[in-house]
Every structure is written in C-alpha cells, then in structure tokens.
Design goal:
There is one protein chain. The protein folds into three domains: 2-112, Alpha-Beta Plaits (2-Layer Sandwich), CATH 3.30.70.1050; 151-241, Chitinase A, domain 3; 298-454, Trigger factor, domain 2, CATH 1.10.3120. Helix 11 (370-384) packs across helix 12. The protein is built from 15 helices and twelve strands. The protein starts with a strand and ends in a 5-residue tail after the last helix. The protein is extended. The chain is an alpha+beta fold.
Length: 459
C-alpha cells in the first residue's frame, strides 16, 4: 500500500491511498462469504457457493462494491497510523480509481490537530480575590442553621418576604386552562424563587383568602416558553420563628457545648469553602491567560459540530419547536442572529480549549488511571441521579466513553499549568497551590491518542 499526505490547511489534510489487489485477498474472501449468504443458488447451501459460481450469478460489480466498502476504512486507518496523523472527526472518502485485478485508489479528507506552540507556563501570572472569612459570613451561616431548627406559626397579617404560605394555582394560555399548572394547597416560601416569576410580587401584601392574577412565562411542560395568565389564591400565612442564639442552641444544632465553639467551627468550614472558591477562580483565570497567549487555527468541521450540538440542546428545551424558541428569544430581548453569534463564539472557545489542553497533555505525557476514570464516572452518575453502571452503559451506547477519558486528561493538563503559573491574591500574596489543589500525584503512563477522544464535547 502506498499513501501520501497533502496539507490543505493547518487543520485539514488529504490522504491519497493506493492499494494493490494482492493486498485485498482477505477482503475479497469476506465479500464472497457475505454475499453468498444473501444469494440463493440452486445446488448450493446458503454461503457455500464457490466464488466463480457466485460471480456468474450476480456479476463482478457487487463483489467489488463490497470489497471497497470493507477495505477503505481499514486502509485509511493504516495510512493515518503510518503518517502519524492526529485526526479529528470522520473523513470524507472518494474512490479515484478501481482497476480490477490491479489496484484500488481513494482519497480521504479529514481534519487534524493543528501544531500548537504553548507559552512557558511559569510566565503566566494571574490575580485572584482575597478570601477572608468575616463576622458577617459567620452570622449568615448561623442564621441559616437557625432556620433549619425554626418552627412555623400562623399569623394574621398580610404576607411578607420570607413567609411560608399555602396557595392554590391555576393558569391559562390564550384563554385555555393549563391542566398541568393547576394545583391546590401548595406550600411555598415567598422569595425562594422555586415557582414561576412574578408570584412573589403577587403574594407580598396579600391577605389570607385573597386572589391575585399576574402574567408570566412558563418554563416547563407543554407550554414552555409561552406567556400565561396565572391566578394565585392565598390560603394561609405562616412565619418562621427562630431559636435564640445561645449555648443551648449550639448543643441542639451541633456537637459543641458552647456558641463560641460552634462559631469557630463555622469559621473554619467557611475558610475551606472560600479556599475552594479561590482555587476555582485561579483555575479559570489561568486558563483564560493561557488561551489568550496561544494562537490556534480551528478545524471548521469540529467547530460546526460543536455549534450544532449547542443549538440542539437549546431548542430541545422547547421540544424542537423553532417558532416557540424564536418567541422565547424575543422575550429575552435577543435576536436569532445574536444567539447564533454567541453560540459560535462559545463553540470556538470550547474547541480551542480542548485542542490546547490536549497538546499540553501530550507534551507532558499525561495519562488517566482507572481510579481517575472511575472517580469521574461516579461523580457524573451522581449528577444525573443514576448508578455508575447505568451511566457507563449510556456512555457506551452514545459513544461518549472516549469523551469522558479526554475530559479527565484535559483536567489534569490544566492542573499542571496552574501549578506552574504565578497566582497571587489582590494584596500580592502568593497562593499555596498545593494547599488549594493538594499535592501533585505521581505521573501516570502516557495515554495513547485515539481518534474518538481527540476532540469531543464534555460529558
């Protein structure tokens, strides 16, 4: 087999392949066996007719077609491997020559990873916010803890922000009742944001037994994205009564004997949370600085695939009803053109991020251990509320296991960059990155690059 590579652009190549028929013997044998099972020839059992008899019956053309369909993908992969190409996505094949008994020639155009020159990571410098735990932060945590141990008591006054109410709801769209939006005796905390927009304004100031009507946009169900007229009836009003903030409360709400001990524990816990927030900010800012310092030619087919995936997800919420989606955009004060531009920008940024982190992972020979892959699978399965086994099964069915592997590897690449960058807070203090991210793990064996995991959307 002979193969040559033409570079059409920094992100696309044409692979020219010529295969002598001598190398296709096994492909012809498979083709004859497959076709013989599909054709009934008198005097022969299915699949047992000799090749010459089969050809005399169906002709040479179907045999050649079957050989070409089987041989081209396999020979393409051989050419990719011998040319050490890092392909992205699926190739476009074109048969350029079939000389029966002599040779088969075809071309394959496919996107490839561009050459990327990354900066010295030690030259990257970012500033993050200081994370100080204040007395106000501790007081807020105490109030939230008191609320968990509070009791509800009925009041004879108009409803206020923070009250707990019992309501009846009904909604109509274009004068027709929305059955799925009708409910009675629904409990709701005013200001929690757990119901439709506009209900808090309607309830605040209302008295028991009073009915209010307001207009809102439905966000779920058959009429999602449509404007509806909602009627709410206030059945009862209760306020939360909080326990006194003292040592007795500390003993009730925690393992501590005194309120001071409880406050100190909350301060320590808040400190850990704020450190995590600081770590997330450091990661995001280092990634932003890294991408700004790198020029990356983007494969158009890969970008377009990302655009289509994001557009699909957006319209999916409206049951793929383009008219309803356009109406929703209009209500948000955005045109379809503006939405498309935003999606395009986000897709380009996502693809650039993936390519840069893949290049870094290759350069640093980063691998992914079974434990790391399992940890990501368990985390993702918990997000979706399913078992890890079910998550893996769905990932296999949708061809996303490679994407999960690639996502973990990119995360390790970014962590490596962050550790080498200079990160300071707004006061100029250098951050202890090992404290933020933990001690770096020992290097894993280099992961093999695969076409499936080269550039794939995040799981």
């Amino acid at each position: 087999m002979k193969s040559t590579v033409e570079h059409l652009s920094p992100t696309r190549v044409r692979i020219n392949v010529e295969v002598p028929f001598d190398e296709l013997k096994s492909d012809f044998d498979r083709a004859y066996r497959k076709l013989a099972k599909q054709v009934r020839i008198p005097g022969f059992r299915p699949g047992k007719a000799p090749a010459r008899v089969l050809e005399s019956r169906i002709g040479r053309a179907p045999v050649l077609d079957e050989v070409v369909q089987e041989a081209i993908p396999a020979k393409y992969l051989e050419a990719v491997s011998s040319g050490e190409l890092r392909t992205l996505g699926r190739p476009d094949f074109e048969v350029t020559k079939i000389e029966d008994g002599e040779s088969l020639a075809f071309t394959a155009e496919v996107d490839v990873r561009p050459e990327i020159t990354v900066p010295a990571f030690g030259e990257l410098s970012v500033t993050v916010d200081e994370q100080e735990v204040t007395d106000e932060d501790v007081a807020t945590q105490l109030d939230e803890l008191r609320a968990r141990f509070g009791t509800l008591a009925g009041v004879q006054r108009p409803a206020q922000l923070g009250d707990f109410v019992s309501v009846d709801l009904a909604a109509t769209v274009d004068g027709e009742e929305v059955e799925e939006a009708k409910t009675t005796g629904l409990s709701y905390e005013i200001g929690s944001g757990q119901l439709v927009e506009g209900i808090d304004d309607a309830l605040i100031g209302a008295s028991e037994g009073e009915s209010k009507t307001f207009t809102t946009t439905l966000v779920a169900g058959e009429h999602s994205g449509r404007e509806a007229e909602v009627t709410v009836v206030l059945n009862s009003v209760k306020e939360r009564q909080l326990p006194e903030l003292d040592d007795e409360f500390a003993q009730l709400a925690s393992e501590f004997d005194t309120l001071d001990e409880l406050k100190e524990d909350l301060r320590v816990r808040l400190g850990r949370v704020k450190k995590m927030q600081q770590g997330v900010q450091a990661r995001d800012k280092v990634l932003e600085a890294l991408l700004a310092a790198v020029e990356v030619p983007l494969p158009e087919a890969v970008v377009q695939g990302e655009v289509e995936a994001r557009e699909h997800d957006a319209v999916h919420a409206f049951d793929h009803d383009e008219a309803r989606f356009a109406e929703w955009l209009s209500e948000q004060g955005q045109t379809k053109e503006e939405f498309d531009a935003e999606v395009r920008t986000a897709a380009e940024q996502a693809v650039k991020t993936q390519l840069v982190l893949d290049a870094i992972a290759d350069a640093e020979e980063l691998g992914v251990s079974d434990a790391e892959l399992t940890e990501r699978i368990v985390y993702q399965s918990q997000r979706f509320g399913i078992s890890p086994e079910e998550y893996v099964k769905r990932a296999q069915q949708s061809g996303q296991l490679g994407a999960i592997f690639a996502d973990v590897r990119r995360g390790k690449a970014l962590a490596s960059v962050v550790r080498q960058a200079t990160v300071t807070d707004s006061s100029g203090n250098a951050l202890d990155l090992d404290e933020l991210f933990g001690e770096p793990k020992a290097a894993e064996p280099k992961a093999e690059s695969t076409e499936e995991s080269a550039v794939a959307p995040n799981a």
